[in-house]
Amino acid sequence: MASMKYTFTSESVCEGHPDKVCDYIADSILDAYLAQDRMCRVACEVLCKGDKVVLAGEITSTAKVDHEAVARAAIREIGYTDPQEPFNADDAIVSQFITEQAPEITAGVNPSKNRSQEQGAGDQGIMFGYATDETSEMMPLPILLAHRLSHCLAQDRKKGAVPWLRPDGKTQVSVQYEDDVPRTVTDVVVSTQHTEDTEQSKIREYVSDHLAPHALGDWLHPGIRFHVNPTGSFASGGPSVDCGVTGRKIIMDTYGGAARHGGGAFSGKDPSKVDRSGAYFCRFVVRQIVKAGLARRAEAQVAYAIGRAREISTAVNTFGTGDVRAAQEYLKTFDFRPAAMIERLNLLRPIYRQTTNYGHFGRPGLPWEE
Length: 370
Description:
- Helix content is 29%, strand content 24%.
- By secondary structure, it is an alpha+beta fold.
- The radius of gyration is 21 Å and the shape is flat.
């Protein structure tokens, strides 16, 4: 039988991408609340454009947080400090449109007010988790390599190793598979912001001679087609010229398109929002399925109704790579109630700023990856 070949592509962005700037501000505000109040309810949305930063959403907490100060600190950490640019940490105009959580949601989420006396889901919805044995991180190779490229761009910029690099940037990696096994990297796209006086030949040389060998490791080979700043120049970037909004990079936040996504964004949401905690727990569960040898790759789904503690349904797919019945029985041993997931993964901590960039999965130090 002939082998099945196909090419799969995933993309990533740097932390200076406008959408990720917004995600990082939102998660920074969430962490600031969790540092003071473990039972806070935070749903923070952010928009950045030009010299404007808009904070909006619903927050109920006993904590006292200076949202503007947190936002400016996050922007500064990313690297937008140039006073010549409209978007910079000191001069951005911060507007706030934040109210408390709706009482109907509070009544469904808080155990003391819920009719079942259990913590209910903060919203209805479906969440997915995915794991594969094709990499040691149990992540699909294309998104893993794309994140490495973006992360290395940021590291080289922040260390000053490449002085002409600027915060905005995007990467993309195409991998050829044979019978669902990654065989070779075919194409790499790198679009990186730079100073106006930087020659494109210098950027291409940096990507091929330094960035790619460092990020791709053993997957680097002479036949890779590199596409570097395909428009020819990327001197203008970031929120100064582009609009960013929270929750617009959910595919690169998860599995780069290799698995399904429930649709809910993560950043700016406390773990009572099952969009976040449910997706994290599904990832935790499927990692156990793959580690136990029940499948070489697996995808789990969970569904909730707002205010209900018990999930509506769960499902698992092993894609013909293992014992699906055993995986289904194993899935039943996990408690998907919001309070149980939060307790098992110890989610009521200020750990979310570290998840914002370069994927929420496949990275050490996160409880759903342990």
